[in-house]
Specification:
About 7% of the residues have low confidence. This protein folds into 2 domains: 39 residues, no CATH class; 101 residues, Immunoglobulin-like, CATH 2.60.40.790. The N and C termini lie far apart (67 Å). By secondary structure, the protein is of the alpha+beta class. Strands 1-2-7-6 form a 4-stranded antiparallel beta sheet, with no helix packed on it. It has a 3-stranded antiparallel beta sheet with strand order 3-4-5, with no helix packed on it. It has 2 helices and 7 strands; from the N terminus they run H-E-E-E-E-E-E-E-H.
């Protein structure tokens, strides 16, 4: 199988639809996909999808909150704890690191995987930064931040009236 067979779409390989199978919605769909591909191809000049770069929200994070703790989880597949740095400064949690390519540069290839440096910053409020704990397991980084007493006291429940 040739590498070009793995590429899901290419402008050079687009086939004109047969007249009897002409579907205007399918044509519109293809043109919109081409338009978006052309727009995003201009970011960074790389073959990597720009939606995966750090400035566009990679790695993906999940925030969960209880009365006592704020937990931030980040998906970092293919990385180890040695590849990642976690810092808190001035009320901002920063997760940064780098995913290095596993190839040695021989031959032709096609990839949809992301390689390179990344950084996510998450603003924090009302947490005890000095008591933060981080763990890394199965490609998921989890940072637990206990809430400060002051933050817990500031929460007021508002009753919802039904009319």
């Amino acid at each position: 199988m040739a590498i070009r067979d793995l590429i899901p779409w290419s402008r050079n390989q687009e086939l004109a639809p047969a007249r009897e199978n002409f579907d205007p919605f399918l044509t519109l769909h293809r043109e919109m996909n081409r338009l978006f591909d052309d727009v995003f191809r201009g970011f960074g000049g790389t073959s990597v999808s720009p939606l995966m770069e750090g400035r566009f929200g990679w790695p993906k994070v999940e925030l969960s909150e209880t009365d006592k703790t704020l937990t931030v989880s980040a998906e970092l597949p293919g990385l180890t704890e040695k590849d990642v740095q976690v810092e808190i400064a001035n009320g901002v949690l920063t997760v940064r690191g780098e995913k290095k390519a596993e190839r040695n540069g021989e031959g032709r290839y096609f990839t949809e995987r992301y390689y390179g440096a990344f950084e996510r910053q998450i603003p924090l409020e009302g947490v005890e930064e000095d008591k933060a704990e981080a763990s890394f397991r199965n490609g998921v980084l989890t940072v637990s931040l206990p809430k400060s007493e002051k933050a817990r006291e500031g929460v007021k429940r508002i009753a919802i009236n039904t009319r």
